[in-house]
Design goal:
Helix content is 29%, strand content 26%. It has 341 residues and is of the alpha+beta class. It has 2 domains: 106 residues, no CATH class; 198 residues, Palm domain of DNA polymerase (Alpha-Beta Complex). The strands form 3 sheets. The chain has a 7-stranded antiparallel beta sheet, with helices on one face. Strands 1, 2, 3, 4, 5 and 6 form a 6-stranded mixed beta sheet that branches. A 3-stranded antiparallel beta sheet has the order 14-15-16, covered by helices on one side. The radius of gyration is 23 Å and the shape is globular.
Length: 341
């Protein structure tokens, strides 16, 4: 066995191997990690292992597992190798960076447990037509309010942010959850689990791979409530003479005198101005920049803050801001921007 694989985290390949408990090694989207990932990939191909047989849900079918095996699975943002050999099992992922802290699944499981303790059985809300309901979920409000506002520089721009707005949407549309969600929100700063519940649970409810989207109707209601609050506040800002520049899911960028009014506060679903008197410019739905108190802040979906250290105004329009895209085939492995690694 090559050292590049043997040194990675792994687990004993017991008779009843749980796919979700196999440690995951994440390879970042850069040339160095692409070469490491490809070396292991090509070595495994030479071993002529049997393919892993999986259940419909994606689990490893232990009943039909006989010996060394492997497979490769691909999503839009990830290539995953699962390998079982010499009595051990590995999962390797070449992918965009994982969120730190609890995963969506673990956060949602914890949320269910807390609700159960409060007398609410979330499983009683499960529906069978979740994938169909998922198709009806309104898209997040992201992007400039008018096409003419892309690339335009705005002075005296402010940003309104709603606190844990999707979770608040669930509390507003299903009041039986409010007491529990308020408790989680109030303790979020001292408990990473609670913060993860607020951030990930609504999205996980509509995940087909995660829970067969059997709570998609709850996600649908929460997101609709969020979007309605954003639209209503934007209309009020417009009526009061502010320029509504852009939306970013649970917030609004606007130009003019900072607004204070109904719904402002620090509670779940209330809002506040978290950026004041900024120079602002939006390049695209997922990329904008602003300067506040002399400090430059580039925001680009998919690029971490560490990567953007040292950037200056206008850098979101340079090659620095281009995400490194990868392609994959079993013959060539992962390739960055069309180049072999």
């Amino acid at each position: 066995m090559i050292r590049e694989l043997s040194r990675l985290p792994h687990t004993d390949a017991s008779r009843y191997l749980n796919y979700l408990l196999i440690p995951v090694s994440v390879f970042d989207i850069n040339e160095k990690d692409a070469k490491r990932f490809n070396k292991i990939l090509f070595w495994l191909k030479k071993q002529e292992l049997e393919p892993i047989i999986r259940t419909k849900s994606g689990a490893i079918c232990n009943v039909k597992r006989r010996g060394p095996a492997w497979d490769i699975r691909r999503t839009r943002n990830c290539v995953e190798i699962t390998a079982i050999l010499e009595g051990y099992a590995w999962r390797l992922q070449f992918r965009t960076k994982l969120q730190k802290g609890l995963s969506g699944r673990k956060a949602f499981t914890r949320f269910k447990r807390i609700l159960k303790e409060k007398g609410i059985d979330l499983e009683s809300y499960a529906i069978e037509n979740g994938p169909a309901i998922k198709q009806q979920i309104e898209k997040p409000l992201i992007g400039a309010s008018h096409k003419a506002y892309y690339h335009k520089v705005f002075e005296h721009a402010n940003h309104i942010d709603f606190h844990s707005s999707y979770a608040a949407g669930l509390a507003n549309s299903h009041p039986e959850f409010r007491e529990t969600l308020n408790m989680i929100y109030e303790r979020r700063k001292d408990n990473e689990e609670y913060k993860a519940i607020l951030n990930f649970s609504i999205g996980f409810m509509q995940s087909i791979n995660g829970c067969k989207a059997k709570f998609a109707h709850l996600s649908k209601d929460a997101i609709f409530d969020n979007n309605e609050r954003i639209r209503k506040l934007a209309a009020k800002l417009d009526k009061l003479g502010r320029i509504v520049i852009a939306y970013n899911t649970d917030g609004i960028w606007y130009s003019g005198k900072p607004y204070h009014g109904e719904g402002e506060g620090s509670g779940l679903g209330e809002w506040h101005n978290d950026h004041i008197d900024c120079k602002f410019r939006m390049k695209s739905d997922g990329a904008y920049e602003f300067i506040e108190n002399g400090i430059y802040n580039p925001v680009i979906r998919g690029i971490s803050n560490e990567v953007k250290d040292g950037w200056k105004w206008g850098d979101i329009y340079t090659e620095k801001a281009d995400l490194k895209l990868f392609t994959f085939s079993e013959e060539e492995g992962v390739m960055l921007n069309g180049r072999e690694c």
